[in-house]
Design brief:
mainly alpha, 14 helices
């Protein structure tokens, strides 16, 4: 048993190191210089002064801080809207079961498997037809991760006992009161997990926002990083610390909410 435990631990350590190695390299490059990175000699010139210089150059980039703010706005509103609508749908799908609702739920879940690339053109045509090009509203709506969140809430709602709902109805509570007073508190860990997943998805979204946003002042952070993350970018050290700064919001949210992942039933 001791050898088995040691072997499993070793495998997990190796997998963890492989997983975090790109992120460690980003941090290390942030303390280096562009010349050292391009010269494949990153570890020879690491210093805190380089980090400060790279940090200053990063935040002074045109539209970088603006892109962070834009992403925060889009991800926040997309998360709030998506989680609220999806939780309502999850509650309704589980509480009011019927053949029709099961067909609708299956169609919703099936849409998860549709590649994003296959719906870019239809989304672009719809957004252009509605005259919503280059607007935050269009980016927020297209960033909603409704299918997955509906599935998440529906599956977790199976543990919400129907006897509680029936008792509340007998006591005169309407569906709105049952939802907010009983369902929401019971599903708190699921809400927190959904908030985390939804925020990450909206923050990292590139493929659809890039066809909607046309103004440099409205770029989201992912689009901004995508625009500078190429082989022609002149300063790789600045690019690395820009990536590091852009990861911080997700790291903070994950640190706060990660303990609730173990209490959610998937």
């Amino acid at each position: 048993m001791k050898y088995k435990h040691f072997f499993i631990t070793l495998i997990l350590i190796i997998i963890s190191l492989i997983t975090i190695s790109p992120y460690l390299m980003i941090i290390i490059c942030s303390f280096s210089t562009n010349a050292a990175i391009k010269g494949n000699d990153v570890f020879s010139n690491l210093s805190f002064d380089n980090f400060l210089n790279n940090f200053e150059a990063s935040i002074n980039q045109d539209n970088f801080l603006t892109s962070l703010f834009n992403s925060f706005v889009v991800a926040s509103f997309s998360t709030m809207i998506g989680v609220f609508i999806s939780s309502l749908a999850g509650y309704a799908y589980e509480t009011y079961r019927s053949k029709t609702s099961e067909i609708m739920f299956s169609a919703t879940v099936f849409s998860i498997y549709i590649p994003t690339a296959s719906i870019i053109v239809p989304i672009f045509l719809i957004v252009r037809f509605l005259n919503l090009m280059n607007t935050y509203f269009a980016v927020i709506i297209t960033s909603l991760n409704i299918p997955f969140l509906v599935f998440l809430f529906r599956q977790n709602a199976k543990g919400f006992q129907k006897e509680i709902i029936n008792s509340a109805r007998i006591d005169g509570a309407n569906e709105i009161k049952i939802f907010f007073k009983l369902f929401v508190p019971y599903m708190k860990p699921v809400y927190l997990s959904a908030i985390m997943f939804s925020f990450f998805d909206a923050w990292n979204s590139v493929m659809i926002p890039v066809i909607i946003i046309q103004s440099p002042s409205k770029l989201t952070n992912s689009i901004f990083l995508n625009s500078i993350g190429n082989i022609w970018f002149s300063d790789y050290a600045v690019l690395m610390i820009s990536l590091l700064i852009s990861t911080l919001p997700m790291f903070i949210i994950f640190t706060i909410f990660r303990k609730y992942l173990n209490t959610s039933i998937f």
